[in-house]
């Protein structure tokens, strides 16, 4: 990877799965990384994983604003969001409140650019930008608010759209992790009830996703980036849920699942082939089957 000028990057959502991998990559390439965290336990876990990361504890959006307005930083990577899009409560206000905080800081701080994460739930299977739930609505508003702020301040706003992220030591409640746990237990335990299984999912390894965001940061630091842009972070494997289960079977480990042929995918049909361009100069390298084989033979 080409050399980059040293800089200071703030990361929200740094203690999350993708955020922690990004912090480690940034530190590896000479950046000073300031990670915003809400509790000491998750901060300690991050520091063990990315030892050179500096943690800043914040409890409220106003504390984020105060920090950004007083610190000398080059860029902000905004990955923080509510814990789940499917936990039954409307998360849109939380996403928008944090986006307003960041937008205000763009106008009043030394920030040169903001890289923020959107969601592929913003598009339906016809390729139309139709947010499928309140989480996607919040992410759409986030993008608009930050882009409006950078336009006024003559700075950069880059939105990245990661597809379904997977990888090792993943503590999140995600489909791949549930299937993996079931397969490793020999298919015992309570069966997982899935949808009809036809929903397509693009799978991207967490290292690929973090490297793609790093590439965007590099472009912003070197003034190669447009003032406002949106890119997708996609992996090499687009599979239906049935094909994902079949991959487990091919490797000799069938998870205990059954398909509801009358059911519909949660939230409606989502489009894994988000109709926006990939990150320039970046390409994913990990394959899902190779990852799965490694995990199943540990």
What does this molecule look like?
- Residues 1-5 have low confidence and may be disordered.
- Helix content is 38%, strand content 19%.
- The chain is an alpha/beta fold.
- α1 (17-28) crosses α7 (206-221), α3 runs parallel beside α4 and α4 (92-108) runs parallel beside α5 (134-153).
- The chain is globular.
- The longest helix has 20 residues, at 134-153.
- The chain is built from nine helices and twelve strands.
Summarize the structure.
The chain has helices at residues 17-28, 40-49, 61-70, 92-108, 134-153, 175-184, 206-221, 241-250, 288-296; strands spanning 8-12, 32-37, 54-57, 75-78, 113-117, 156-162, 164-166, 192-194, 200-205, 228-233, 237-240, 257-259. By secondary structure, the chain is an alpha/beta fold.
